[in-house]
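Changelog-adjacent note: as of this version, every example in the card shows the full chain rather than a window. The one below runs 234 residues end to end.
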Amino acid sequence: MSARILVAEDDEKQSRLIRIYLEREGNAVQVVADGRAALERARSTEPDLIVLDVMLPLVDGLDVCRILRAEAHEVPILLLTARSTEEDMLLGLDLGADDYLTKPYSPRELTARVRALLRRSRKGGAAAGSEVLRVGAVELDTARFEVRVAGRPVALTSKEFSILEALAREPGRVFTRARIIERAFGFDSDVLERTVDAHVRNLRRKLGDDPARPRHLETVYGRGYRLVDGSAPT
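Full-length structure tokens:
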């Protein structure tokens, strides 16, 4: 299925290569060369996905990501970064990015990750009816890609939704980080376990959990995470 993809990359050679590979997949690709243009284009055209270089002029990619998420844009974001430290990568996830690639990268890997993000963001979109998962006050509509907590709508990224859905399908079960990667990231076998922790931190914040005493998304030390019925007061 064709998608509208916004590429924000100031390296002309890289942006041209990305455009070629994504257009071969049948996508409509727009390219901008700075963060300010990325923000303006994202707001005006509402792309299906953004490929976002971190080191952009005018407004850097991390700030673009932070601003879009603050404005409640749920578009999947794939970060491209030359920063190889784990902390830099996790910072992007903390700001709301769905995935990242470290430069240099294979264009084939980039297109594979784009396909995976698009597939998950559209998951169930063609289904005839909705499947609603309820665990305590947390409610997921998998066809509409909607989440509510005690009736309050919660905006999640596609990766956050995938993790929450995996946990909600088996409430009370402890999922190791490796199991979460398998369920929510699919082909991304090289995903760091700390990447899962970053997404879980974001999920807790959005679900309204107190990190010290979470009511919905619990840590089982030495094991992993589980979603529990946190509707009753503790």
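Structural remarks: The chain has eight helices and eleven strands.
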